[in-house]
């Protein structure tokens, strides 16, 4: 039976926060916080979706002078963000100088039992963007479309090496299930993000890979990778890649990304970053980044964010149970 999973793309621009004084000067000059560096962490390797997102945030905040304190970036890979999430919970409780990026991976990790922690264990600051998953391969691959890949997986699961971060396995499982295969038999080769997956493809260590569009878009447009299908409702503007649905597989799945702080992060810090980010998503720098990465800005904070997280966690539970 076809599987169809959809994640909401509703856009909320927190007008009330902007009206309350989230202008560039007000944010940059806010006192008494922040007075020193705020560490920005990607819980995955360079080139991953986490890495690209946190670096995009820092670039936009700096370029448009929204925040004027140092924002050092660190990569702390492990478990598709689960390892640093545990560090945030255990070591930074109550801190105001630690921010990290998260996504659907946080929910998949918790629901699947990979991590004991989830969004309720930290301070969720904002959802920033939404992007779709895409399946890619080498330009010289024998796989010409999703049908070729999924037929090969069904016929000989061990013969198709699928490069995927742990959280990227769920969307590929949905494709396998939609094609009538057994997701449990898929041969996954774990990589922490698109940079590592692209290197593995180039080295012929995997046959196909799946991840967020932003992780592969530069290599797709340069011709270094060939996109086989995107898990979107319609083809993405500026990226002529057929959808899974066009190819007979009724699977649509998007990934959200946002920022979180430690448990019990002080309210003054949370409100500061929500104002700063509300300004950022309207900035020219951020809009250029979003267009280049083929992501949709879906800014959300407060009660709306909490409702979205609860609803999406329920969807993830249902999706994992269906495979």
Automatic annotation (TrEMBL):
CDD domains, per database record = PBP2_Bug_TTT (cd07012)
Source species, domain of life: Bacteria
Q: Hey, what's the signal peptide range on this chain?
A: 1-30
Coiled-coil portions: none
* A Pfam family the protein falls into: TctC
Q: What is this protein called?
A: C4-dicarboxylate ABC transporter substrate-binding protein
Its family? Belongs to the UPF0065 (bug) family.
**Alphabetic keyword roster:** Signal
């Amino acid at each position: 039976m076809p599987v169809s999973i959809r994640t909401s793309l509703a856009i909320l621009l927190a007008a009330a926060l902007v009206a309350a004084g989230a202008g560039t000067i007000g944010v940059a000059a806010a006192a008494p916080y922040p007075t020193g560096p705020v560490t920005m962490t990607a819980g995955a390797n360079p080139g991953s979706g986490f890495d690209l997102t946190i670096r995009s945030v820092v670039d936009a905040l700096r370029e448009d002078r929204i925040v004027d304190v140092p924002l050092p970036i660190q990569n702390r890979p492990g478990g598709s963000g689960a390892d640093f999430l545990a560090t945030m919970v255990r070591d930074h409780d109550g801190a105001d100088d630690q921010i990290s990026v998260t996504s659907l991976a946080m929910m998949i990790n918790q629901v699947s039992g990979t991590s004991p922690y989830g969004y309720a264990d930290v301070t969720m600051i904002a959802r920033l963007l939404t992007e779709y998953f895409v399946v890619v391969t080498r330009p010289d691959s024998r796989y010409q479309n999703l049908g070729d890949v999924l037929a090969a997986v069904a016929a000989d699961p061990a013969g198709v090496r699928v490069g995927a971060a742990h959280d990227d396995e769920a969307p590929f499982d949905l494709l396998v299930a939609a094609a009538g295969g057994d997701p449990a038999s898929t041969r996954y080769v774990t990589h922490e993000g698109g940079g590592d997956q692209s290197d593995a493809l180039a080295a012929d260590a995997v046959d196909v890979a799946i991840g967020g569009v932003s992780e592969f878009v530069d290599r797709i447009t340069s011709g270094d990778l060939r996109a086989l299908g995107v898990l979107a409702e319609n083809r993405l503007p500026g990226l002529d890649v057929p959808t899974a649905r066009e190819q007979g597989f009724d699977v649509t799945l998007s990934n959200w990304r946002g920022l979180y702080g430690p448990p019990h992060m002080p309210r003054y810090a949370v409100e500061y970053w929500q104002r700063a980010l509300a300004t950022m998503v309207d900035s020219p720098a951020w809009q250029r980044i979003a267009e280049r990465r083929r992501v949709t800005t879906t800014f959300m904070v407060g009660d709306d964010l909490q409702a979205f997280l609860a609803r999406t966690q329920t969807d993830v539970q249902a999706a994992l149970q269906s495979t």
